[in-house]
Amino acid sequence: MLTQLKSPMSPQNDPWEAIDRRKQFGSNKLTSIEFTVTNLCNLRCEHCAVGDVLTMKDSEERIPLPLIFQRLDEIEHLDTLSITGGEPMFNQQIITDYIVPLLRYAHERGAKTQINSNLTLDLDRYEAILPYLDVLHISFNYVDAQDFYRTAYVHKMHPVSFSQAEKTFNTMVENTIELAKRGVFVSAESLISEHTAGKLSRIHHIIKELGCQRHEVHPLYPSDFARHMKILSLAELRGVYNRLLDERDPDLWILFGTLPFYACNSSEEDLALVKRMKDSHNVTVRNDPDGHNRLNTNIFTGEVIVTDFGDVEPLGNLRTDRLDDCFERWQKHSLFQPFNCYCPQSSCVGPNIIVADTYYRGIDFRERKGISL
Questions:
Q1: Residue 321 covered by a domain
Q2: pTM to 2 decimals?
């Protein structure tokens, strides 16, 4: 029998939110670590932000777990720990040797935990992680199996039949329903792309029907596989966001992440949207963690980077560097300075690097001031 879990996650309690420690300490602090634990995945989605590094076999060279624990012990304030890939649950050895010990470590230390999974594998595979898991984060950009088939196998190296895809889609749906019924906090993320923009509200209501406790919504950004897709304009995104707010289920928490609209924008339409999101019930806008309170590291190479889908050179390595030292390097990095900003009246710490590079290239956010919200 699967473990039953209850989680205190709510719009009032998002431990991944970057601004809370900023308010407490007056500067950005490293409180969140994300581990890339595999480059394997059973899907090849058109929008995959790490698609270029996916492989058919993981490296046998891995950072020893005791050294990882040492680096985590050195972090003074560890609020959250996340696991990502690839598909983290694909390799049973990785689950046993790394995922379960890392989640258990965070759980015992009092940090909140998350794993990013496509949830298409056998349900029993998730049994070992559930006692230590706070958020099960899935990707959901579909209205039916045909939609999934078109999206999830774009970059597959061998043909996949619709019947195979339909079976995988149904497994994901059934797993989501079952785990949500058992009290697992399932957060479903949708990316706003040219393919989802016109049906995001339908996707939202399906996510609610599946029993998910949160709908996380992000724009598509040009990383790896997604570089070949159309990136929506700010005007197009505004329309999508407003339609979703018009048509959403108010009982389902919506979390808007990597939002490219700010309280310091000059556009009245932008400001109206920012205010609307702020005033809407069961809606939150998360200040992006990457570089503001979170770093990513890789269990194979040991490289420490600001985000798992960026092109910034490594800030250090687990073999030689404390994670807090790596974080401070990013705080002083020339690439970060134009958006190393903070507007307490707006509860905003500015964009991350991919948002700034996509929509605000050349803009120095330190010279801007947000309105009070």
A1: yes
A2: 0.94
